[in-house]
Design goal:
The protein is mainly α and 440 residues long. The protein is built from 26 helices and no strands.
Length: 440
């Protein structure tokens, strides 16, 4: 049947197992579509105008098809077949809102139309409307695809899996299994299975799946990136670096692989990370993840002013981001802008009282600006989420010392000396001197 063949050709071109790909690709019907048979063109069940429109669709003559369908639908506004064909034509011309309206009208005219539910679901997925797409795709999985065949029904299950993976990984796994009952496994299926395994904490299973893809396609960017991510999680930085450098030979400009390599190099204190991140940032100046990573590496390299410019840019878009505020505050401390640092750390701590780094920064900045009482409060709040260390114990002692609370100061100097154990010689000398004075 011509209409079934056209439908299959459409989805062979526009439907991807990847929801991301589906969202970013406009439907493009095949250039060489089959011509209608004499039987279908003359069939009394198919109006001549609709058959002529489908013939035009087969030749990618969208305007002719649109004209014929508009004329026919003006007199037959509830013809489900013609409505679907009109939605198909609008979809092919990237008139997505018109296509969605026509598909919905086709469903209203025939609620059991597998093709219309599937088409609408995938269109909504491409528009990044998963909450609207899911019911349509779920409906398609319950309907008989008829001559469209199980392959197209499997596409509905795969699209559901892509939608469910972020909110319900267990459901996504089930969706994928249903798809595999209807059609052979694809590399994209294996990649999705790997992602779902990783989400479930089954990293060994995820690694096995990524390696299965790479056995067939060593240059697969998603598989290389996925496996590299597992190596990074395990802090297997040399293995990740080797894998990423090999993958970049075939995809030298891929931003994900380059960003991962930069992260691996930064984790190994490799100076190559900085120029790589600068190059990435120049190519993708609006990517917040790359900007944040460059800001971190610039700070490690000692370019606190340059790092802080990037953090300020990120904070302009996300002023309540506690991690950004803490990083900004740390740069201000390094730039000796203590008063401003104190305000920034205080803001971060108020937004997230459980953030120990914010309280740590506030404690230090407050002491350096002669607010030992604030230091003690910040250290108290910090202690609720983070353990003490030699640096915080020394700060406790100094704050109590500044407030002339001798017993508390002496107690913390002793705790500091025990914890430092020769690792902070300058502060240890100072602590011993203060203990001698406090004992008088």
């Amino acid at each position: 049947m011509l209409r079934t063949a056209l439908f299959a050709l459409l989805f062979a071109c526009i439907s991807s197992p990847s929801l991301v790909a589906a969202q970013n690709s406009a439907p493009q019907p095949a250039a060489a579509s089959p011509q209608p048979s004499a039987e279908s063109a003359q069939s009394p069940s198919i109006p001549a105008e609709v058959a002529a429109a489908e013939s035009a669709i087969a030749g990618s003559d969208w305007k002719t098809a649109e004209t014929k369908l508009d004329s026919y639908l003006a007199a037959h506004p509830t013809d489900a077949r013609a409505l679907f064909d009109a939605g198909y034509v609008a979809d092919a011309q990237n008139r997505l809102d018109d296509a969605a309206t026509l598909y919905r009208r086709a469903i209203a005219a025939n609620p059991n139309s597998f093709e219309a539910h599937l088409s609408l679901g995938l269109l909504l997925a491409r528009q990044n409307k998963p909450d609207e797409a899911r019911p349509e795709l779920a409906a398609a999985t319950t309907l008989d695809p008829g001559e469209a065949g199980p392959e197209l029904k499997a596409r509905a299950w795969r699209a559901l899996a892509r939608i469910d993976r972020s909110t319900d990984p267990a459901a996504a796994s089930n969706d994928l299994l249903e798809a595999l009952k209807l059609s052979p496994e694809t590399p994209e299926d294996t990649l999705l299975a790997a992602e779902l395994a990783e989400q479930a904490g089954q990293n060994d299973a995820a690694e096995t799946a990524y390696r299965r893809v790479l056995e067939k396609n060593p240059n697969s960017v998603p598989a290389n990136a996925g496996l590299a991510h597992l190596f990074i999680l395990r802090k297997q930085y040399p293995e990740a670096e080797t894998l990423l450098r090999a993958a970049l030979k075939s995809a030298p400009d891929d931003p994900t692989l380059n960003a991962q390599l930069a992260a691996v190099l930064a984790a190994q204190d490799d100076a190559e990370a900085l120029p790589l991140l600068k190059k990435l940032h120049e190519a993708h100046p609006s990517d917040p993840a790359i900007t944040r990573m460059l800001a971190q590496v610039l700070a490690v390299a000692g370019d606190y002013a340059g790092s802080d410019q990037l953090y300020l840019h990120l904070l302009a878009a996300n002023p309540q981001d506690v991690d950004l505020l803490v990083a900004h505050g740390q740069n201000l401390v390094r730039l000796a802008q203590m008063e401003e640092a104190m305000k920034v750390f205080d803001k971060a701590a108020q937004i997230d009282p459980a953030n120990g780094d914010a309280w740590s920064g506030l404690a230090f900045a407050a002491f350096r600006t002669s607010h030992p009482d604030v230091t003690l409060h910040a250290l108290t709040m910090r202690s609720r989420t983070l353990p003490e260390n030699p640096a915080t114990l020394f700060l406790w002692a100094q704050a109590y010392d500044s407030l002339h609370q001798k017993p508390q100061a002496a107690a913390y100097y002793h705790r500091f000396l025990e914890a430092a154990a020769g690792k902070m010689p300058d502060q240890e000398w100072q602590a011993r001197q203060r203990l001698q004075i406090l004992a008088k």
